[in-house]
Amino acid sequence: MTVLVTGGAGYIGMHTVAELVAHGEPVVVVDDLSTGHWPAGLFDVPFYSLDIQDGEAVGTVMARHGVDAVVHFAAKSLVGESVRDPLLYYERNVAATAQLLRAMVRQGVRRMVFSSTAAVYGHPGRVPIQEDDPKQPVNPYGETKLAIERMLRWGGDAYGISAISLRYFNAAGAHPELPIGEDHRPETHLIPILMQVALGQREAVTIFGSDYDTPDGTCVRDYIHVMDLASAHRLALERLRRVDAGVEVYNLGTGSGHSVLEVVRVARSVTGHPIPVAFGPRRAGDPAVLVASPARAQAVLGWRPRYTGMEDMVSTAWRWHKSHPEGFGTAGGP
Ligand SMILES: NC(=O)c1ccc[n+]([C@@H]2O[C@H](COP(=O)([O-])OP(=O)(O)OC[C@H]3O[C@@H](n4cnc5c(N)ncnc54)[C@H](O)[C@@H]3O)[C@@H](O)[C@H]2O)c1
Ligand SMILES: O=c1ccn([C@@H]2O[C@H](COP(=O)(O)OP(=O)(O)O[C@H]3O[C@H](CO)[C@H](O)[C@H](O)[C@H]3O)[C@@H](O)[C@H]2O)c(=O)[nH]1
Questions:
Q1: Distance from the CA of 54 to the center of ligand 2, in angstroms?
Q2: Reaction catalysed by this chain (predicted)?
Q3: FRET partner for 260 with CA separation of 20 to 30 A, picked from 58, 165, 282, 318?
């Protein structure tokens, strides 16, 4: 009973590997290192530098390690890039996942936990957002994640695959003990950019829009700690093994929103750096407010986020960035 983690060298994937290993779960990682980093010697788990589009090679890994479930993080996930090059997202997200599912079917592996996103909702009609609210993605990234959710639904019927799709809101923070954290290149996410300003690596942060219909005019997001995302994956795996779940979806957020300016204020207080801001135009495709209703994940998975305060998110991120100003450095494969 081994779990195959695709994209396990990425930000959320690596924290989930840590969580699974800490709970005694045998894990094998497949990652092509296109955006990830695999620090040599940190985890005692088999690592394969493979593209999931190579279904045959991934199938061989499944057979060799007795894989019974897949946690599927591997994807392209930059909204702006997806608008500039949508075909890349159809290839690397939709087509690649079809290859992965084909390999699973061939190997008789019938459980998947899938990384979905709040971007499937587009501009929400109401907040907090519930799972059954309308899905109207406003960029190819969200569109391809929704397409995969639908592929899982059809695949569930046709091949007997049970899947849990976890729609994360804004992942944030870092492991409180292990030397792992967020290292995207280029970095586009708010909190790591604030940390880079505090480290003196950037002059200032540009706030995208100050005229939104929100209390302080800046966008409101539901930030969820990466450790809490990791625990949700473990609980989802447990559920897939316990019951024939069919295909289920869950929002993962705290249920509380924080404006960009609020996050900046917390970052100033945690780092002790003034973090200068500049106000710029709105970023295309940014909804004003995205806040999850996490009620379903709490009721069905028994999920309880532990790091719910913005200070928890920023201080664990700061610990990582301060001790690893160059991120994983040049760490490539093992
Ligand atoms: N970061 C967020 O706030 C957020 C929010 C919602 C959803 N998600 C989703 O969560 C998942 C992980 O996000 P992340 O922030 O950790 O991203 P990441 O880029 O850090 O991780 C993705 C990993 O997948 C690997 N990968 C990509 N394509 C691959 C392929 N074809 N074959 C093998 N490996 C491949 C990359 O090398 C990387 O290690 C993604 O699916 C993303 O869409 C992230
Ligand atoms: O330099 C920056 C970076 C971000 N922001 C703002 O900060 C907020 C958070 O932005 P991030 O880029 O950190 O995160 P997103 O909300 O754009 O994206 C996240 O949530 C999305 C779902 O809506 C997707 O799932 C995506 O993968 C995930 O990273 C947004 O209002 C954004 O406009 C700034 O003002 N300046």
A1: 31
A2: UDP-alpha-D-glucose = UDP-alpha-D-galactose
A3: 165
Question: Rounded to the nearest 5°, which phi and psi values hold at 25?
Answer: -85, 125
- Please give the Cα distance from 9 to 74 (Å, whole number): 9
pLDDT digits (tens, 9 = 90+) for 228-287: 999 999 999 999 999 987 999 999 999 999 999 999 999 999 999 999 999 999 998 899
* pLDDT tens figures, 2-17: 999 999 999 999 999 9
Q: Which residues are catalytic?
A: 141
Residue 195 has a CB neighbour count (10 Å cut-off) of 29
Read off the pLDDT of residues 10-42 as tens digits, 9 standing for 90 and up.
999 999 999 999 999 999 999 999 999 999 999
* Cβ of residue 145 lying under 6 Å from some atom of ligand 2: no
Confidence of residue 332 (pLDDT cuts 50, 70, 90): very low
Question: Is the C-beta atom of 224 inside 6 A of ligand 2?
Answer: no
* 138 CA → ligand 2 middle, Å: 14
What is the residue extent of each domain of the chain? 3-171+224-253
Average model confidence (pLDDT) across the chain: 96
Q: What integer pLDDT is reported at residue 329 of this predicted model?
A: 87
Topology of the domain covering 3-171+224-253: Rossmann fold (3.40.50)
